[in-house]
Each structure stands twice: as structure tokens, then as C-alpha cells.
Amino acid sequence: MLLRLAYLGITNAFTLLRLLPGGDRDKDIEILSLRHQLAVMQRQLDGQQVRFEPVDRAWLAALLHPLPRPTLRRLQLLVKLDTVLKWHRDLIARRHAMASRPRRRGRPRTLRSIRALVLRLARENSSWGYRRVHGELLTLGIKVAPSTVWEILREAGIDPAPDRAASTWTDFLRSQAEALLAADFMETVTLAGARMYILAVIEHASRRVRILGVTAHPNAAWVGQAARNLVMDLEDASCKATYLIRDRDGKYPALFDAILADTGIKVVLSGIQVPRMNAIMERWVRTCRRELLDRTLVWNQRHLLHVLREYERFYNLHRPHQGIANVRPLKPLPEPITDPDQLARLKIHRHDRLGGVLHEYEHAA
Known about the structure:
CATH architecture of the largest domain: 2-Layer Sandwich
Order of helices and strands: HHHHHHHHHEEEHEHEHHHEE
Number of strands: 7
Number of domains: 3
Strand content: 5-15%
Radius of gyration: 39 Å
CATH class of the largest domain: Alpha Beta
Number of helices: 14
CATH topology of the largest domain: Nucleotidyltransferase, domain 5
Helix content: 40-55%
Structural class: alpha/beta
């Protein structure tokens, strides 16, 4: 259409140049002859409607627009005056629509560097779902929507982790998180076949985890001393917890509950074979096994304690937690990066812990 409109404009410009040298008498004769030809055509059409192409409509509307309405009414045309005016309104509306149309439809595309980083995180950490990847991006100051991460992984053929529905008990624990602690024993086996017991405590509100110790013989004296260390640590951190959830494991002596009760912390026992009542602690145990113990060969008790201390620092200082909006227990998230140039030139450095078992990502200096 644009090409044809340009062609009509050029041909009519040459026609106008040809008419310039002519006198008024010659132009009047030509106008009268054209009017007579129009009258003959209208008689032959006998009321039939003449079809104009969009280009013809635009051209006639542009030519006749400068003329005043009384002059237009005196013109002899194949269409009505209102039709010409409608053509002109359509032409103006189409021009405004073209000018106001956005250059690109929908949201702007995700930068190639961010897409590459998302795929890198998923490739280097096979157990991470899209929400875990999204949390890692937030720790790097890169703010994108979780759905964007999901879309990038889907286009690359990487299936995201399924969402897990929360239960009523979980909602209750979340509402009372500031006052809740949770404890649990977990077991692992060294290369020599020795069975080791790990006692850990987690804060519901901040998800901060504390490794209270590792032993092959969790007797009453050892567990009691672990409780005393926990109480001193909570006082130093100004923690205001008033309840501690634990299961009915026989390794907890009465001394454990008594030491906590002296500091105002009441022990709440979970139901028999109801792990969901201590879901946050059970989830940490599962995470610790999947991210650490299942990928580490433990030599002895000393080595196990060293590995757990490293994981405790990683968990509290770097790892984002989905249950608390992907923040970290002891380190706030950085401000999102808003500079387009900085986002387009991301230089992310990977820091390995425990020989590459754990990965931490940060901006290169």
C-alpha cells in the first residue's frame, strides 16, 4: 500500500507540473470535459457502487482535505461528501495508531548474560529447581521474576522442581516462627563403618541452624552439655525463643528438657511417626543429606565435625531460603542491580567450599 501511494504521489506531481504552463482557459475546458465524463460514467453505473482501493481512498482524502466544506459540496464526485470525510478520519486515526504503537510488544527480553547465568546455575547444581536458582540470583543482586527463571529453564529443556503445597500445620508454624526452635538427631556412617550422631537446632523465623555437636555415643552427659551450649549461644544472640519442638527419640534425657525449662524454653514433643509436626527441621536434615553428606566421604568424627561446620557457615551466610523469601539467616540480600551496563557485563566468580561440594557465587572484584 505504501509503495502504491508513493507511486500515485509521484505521477500526480508530474501531472501538476504539466498543468503549470497551461492557461486558465485550457484548465477550465479540461475540468468541464472531466465533469462530463463523470456524468456519463454515473449514468452507465445506474446507481452501482464504485469500489475504491485503500490507496485511492487515502489519496483522495489527502487531496480534498484542504478544501472548505462549501467547496467540497459543489464538487462532482463518485462518492458522497461524508464518505470522503470518513476516509480522512480513518487516515488520521491510522497515522496516530502507527505512531503510538510500541516498538516491541510485551515485556523486554531477558538479557543474554542473565539467561546464560541461569542455565549455568542449573547445570552446575543438578538438584536446584527454578525457585532455588531465583534465590541465588537475588543473593547476587540480580532481580528477575521467578516465572522468568522458570521460562528460561523450560525453553532449555530443564524441568523445574515441583511446587509443594503447604499444610495447616505449616501455616501455624509460620505464624509462630519467632518463638520456635526445632531440634533433631541425624545419623551418618564413616568410611570405617562407625555410626555418628549429629545434634542440630534450627530457628523457625530466620532458618539459622546450629550444629551442637557430633558423637558416637549420645549419652545423657553429652546431650546435657549440648543443651547448655545451646542456651549460652541463644543468650549471646538475644534469641527470644520460648518453645522447642523435638521428636520422642530416646536419646533426649530428662536433663535436656530441664536445662531448657530453666531458661524459659518449653519442650514440645511431636506426634508419634508424624514428621510433618517438625517439618522445618526434617527439611533441613534432608537438605543436609542431599547437599553434603550424600556427596562426602567422611573419614572420622573430626572430619565430620569440620565438614558440618563448613556447611553451617554456608547455610547461614550464603544459601538463600525459599521459606523466608530467599533471604539468608545472617546476611541480608544486596540491593538489586539497576544499571543496564552492569547487568549486560556480569562477571560472576564461583567460590568452592569443601573441594567443590558447595558452590558460592559472587561478583568478581
